[in-house]
Amino acid sequence: MKKNIYLMTMVTLFVFVWSVSSLAVDKIGFINLRDIIQGSNAGKKATDDFTKFMEKEKQEIQALEKELKKMKDDLEKQGSIMTAKTRSEKEAAYQKKMRDYQLQVNDSNEELQRRDQEMMQKLIPEILKIVRSIAEKEKYTLVIDVATMTPPYYAKENDFSKRVIEEFNKSK
Q1: What b/e string do you get for 67-106 counting C-beta neighbours within 10 Å, with b at 16 or more?
Q2: Which domains does the chain show, CATH number per domain?
Q3: Minimal CA–CA distance to 64: which of 96, 92, 108, 100?
Q4: Are 119 and 5 in contact (CB under 8 A)?
Q5: Using one digit for the tens of pLDDT, what is the confidence trace for 9-38?
Q6: How many CA atoms lie within 13 A of 170 on its CB side?
Q7: Mean pLDDT, residues 43-52
């Protein structure tokens, strides 16, 4: 009889401890990596540099577009009075300029993508170190980037992006 009482007590204690530990809530945090990059001083500087480069490339492409448009207009206006040989030479020159333009646009796009990736590769590791340190201090079990994986709902009070920006600015 005493064995049964002890056994029942142990089972009850085990069930109680197991149920209490399963009720413990995991702490989930949220960040917005895009906002962190755009809001940090280093991110703003990198974005400004990127924008300046992009504007320079855009101006070069617009100059090529103007030149192409002028060549095309000349061909259309003077095409009827040109000799066949002159017209074919001008059309060949136009086609060559069009290929150069397309290559320039492709090269510019590739360069912009490369610079964007370089910027991200420089900033993200440092930002993630700060995210990890905050998450460890505050005992978060999971941190989700809402910029890459948009949940249908998340508690805004668990978003610590602003603290990450502040810490990141201090470290820079």
Answers
A1: eeeebeeeeeeeeeeeeeeeeeebeeebeeeeeeeeeeee
A2: 25-171 (3.30.910.20)
A3: 100
A4: no
A5: 544 544 444 544 444 568 899 999 999 999
A6: 7
A7: 94
SS3 call for 9: helix
Tokens of 97: 């300029």
CA atoms 129, 134, 139, 141: torsion sign: negative
| In the block, residue with structure tokens 């809530």 | 25
Would you tell me the crossing angle of helices 161-171 and 41-78 to the nearest 10 degrees?
A: 90
All residues at 6 or more sequence positions from 41 whose CB lies less than 8 Å from its CB, including other chains: 169, 172
Tokens for 72, please give them: 């095309």
Strands (E), the chain: 28-31, 142-145
Helix (H) or strand (E) holding 139: none
How would residue 7 be classed by pLDDT, with cut points 50, 70 and 90?
very low
Count CA within 13 A, CB hemisphere, residue 37. Answer: 18
pLDDT value at position 1? 53
CB 134 within 8 A of CB 160: yes
- Give DSSP secondary structure letters for 42-85: HHHHHHHHHHHHHHHHHHHHHHHHHHHHHHHHHHHHHTTTS-HH
Q: Which of these, 169, 37, 59, lies nearest to 116 by C-alpha position?
A: 37
CA 100 to chain centre: 30
